[in-house]
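Sanity check record (used in CI):
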Amino acid sequence: MNFKSFSFAPEILRAIDECGYQELSPIQRLAIPHVRKGHDVLANAQTGTGKTAAFALPILQKLIDNPKPRTTANARVLVLAPTRELAEQIANSFERYGQYTDVKVAAIFGGVDINTQAKKLKLGVDVIVATPGRLLDHINSCNVSISNVEFLVLDEADRMLDMGFINEINTLMSASRNDRQTMLFSATYPSEMKKFSTSILKNPKIVQASKDNATAETVQHVVYPVEQRKKQELLSELIGTKNWQQVLVFVNFKETADEIVKELNLDGIKAAVCHGDKTQGNRRRALKEFKEGKVRVLVATEVAARGIDIDGLERVVNIDLPWLAEDYVHRIGRTGRAGNSGQAVSFVSREEEQTLEEIETLIGSKIRRIYVPGYEVSNRDALVKRLHNKPNHQKRGGRTNNPNSQAAGEARIMNRKKISNVRKKAKGQKLKLAK
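Expected output for Superfamily II DNA and RNA helicase:
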C-alpha cells in the first residue's frame, strides 16, 4: 500500500513524493483512514515511525476538501507539543506537506520574540503548532482564538502530562469547540495517560502499531557497568577507541551536560550542549552543527528527548539513566528511526541498578552488559540480590509518572547544596569565635 491508495490531492502527493516517502509505515496505514473519516483517534506507536505524517496528511486533505475563508485570529487546526523543538519540527512537516496548497502554518513556542508570533497570528493562520504555555499567553493577549478549532492533536501526550501541562491542556480544550475531532498520539501509554484519554476522546479508534512502551526492533541495547565518577572518562574512551562519529548523549542535569562538553572538547572531541538554560537560538545552532557533522557529540538534558529528528543517527548514550523508565523509550527513540539500525548505550553505576531493572521490565527484555577493563564495578548479581532482600525494596510500589520528577530531583540536590553551604558558614563562624 502506498500514499496514492488514500486519494490524496495532487498537491499533497507531489509534496510527499519530494519528501521521498514511498511505502506507508504501520502507524500511517492504520491511522490515516480513521482520521480521514472524522473519528477521534488514540494512537500508540514507536518513536520515529512516522506519527506526524499519520495525522498531518489527512488533516491537510480535510482542509482542502472543505475550504473556508481564513479569518484574523482564528485557526482550524491546533497541534500541542511538549517542547519547542518538537513544535518546530511538526510545524516544518506541515509546511513541507502543504507547500503546494494555500494552508498557512504558525509555530508558537517560548524562547523567541512573542511580538513576531503575534503579528503572524493576527494575519490569520490555518494550523497552529504550539507548546501549551506560550499559546495561552497569546490567547490571553487576544492575539488568537481557538474557538473554531476543528482538529485538535496532542502529540507526545504522555510527556506533556509528565511535564505538568495538564491544567494548561484542560484550559485549551475548554476554549475549543466541543464537536472538534481529537487525536492523541504517543510513544508510551502509562496508566495516567489512559485515564486522561478517556476524558477527552469520544468513542476513539484505537491504533496500536506496536505493543505498549515498545522500542524499535532496529535498536540494539547495551549497558556498560561503570563507577559514577568514571562515566565521563569512559565516554571519551569509547568515542576514541570505537571511532563513534555521531553521538547524542543524555544526562539528567544541566551542570553535568556542561561538564561533559568541556571535558570532551579538552580531549579533542568536538561537542555541543543543549539544555533549558540555553537560548532557543543557541539550541538550534547546536542541533544544526550536530546534524551537519560540525560537532561529533551533542550533550542534552531531557528537554531534547522529544523533537530531535536526525536522519541516520547511529547512537544514543545515556550517561545518566532517566528517572522514569518510560523516558528511556523516548531518549533512545532518537536512533533506529524509519527502519534504520541504531544503538542505545547506557552507563550504569551501582546506584542505578534498580532503575535499570525497571527499564528492562518495561521494554520486556534483558539488556546485554559489556565490561571494559579498568572501569569495572562490583558484581551486579550480588548487588541486586542485596537490593531484593531489603524490606523497602520488597514493599515498593514501583515508579509512576510524576510531572515534577525531574524538578523534584534537581530541587533535592539544590537543597543539599544549600544545607552544605549553611553548615560550612556556621562552622566558619564558630572558628572565628574560637579565635
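The CA atoms of residues 162 and 403 lie 4 Å apart. If this sentence no longer matches the regenerated C-alpha cells, the check is flagged for review.
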